[in-house]
Design a protein that fits this description.
The longest helix is centred in the middle third of the chain and has 23 residues. With 82 residues, this protein is mainly α. It has four helices and no strands. 60% of the residues lie in helices and 0% in strands.
């Protein structure tokens, strides 16, 4: 799924790698920060931003698709009288 998000441009490879390593491979965030040579808070914010982008991308993919046929007109006989 992360690879698809990268392919679709929702995430960069670095963002996907950060999510993968810290969420799925159990690397601690402070370890990732040290490995990247960044502060903990900067890596925390980067992961939060990447996860938000991933969630938005997933929401778009899961959105129900509109029916491909035109809507029919309502039957006037079914209208309630005023």
């Amino acid at each position: 799924m992360l690879a698809e998000a990268v392919r679709d441009g929702a995430l960069t490879e670095a963002e996907a790698s950060l999510i993968l390593s810290t969420r799925l491979e159990n690397m601690r965030l402070h370890e990732a920060a040290t490995e990247l040579g960044e502060s903990y808070s900067r890596v925390f914010r980067a992961r939060k931003k990447a996860e938000s982008a991933l969630i938005s991308w997933l929401d778009v993919r899961r959105a129900p698709k509109k029916a491909e046929h035109p809507q029919t007109k309502p039957d006037p006989a079914c209208k309630k009288s005023a």
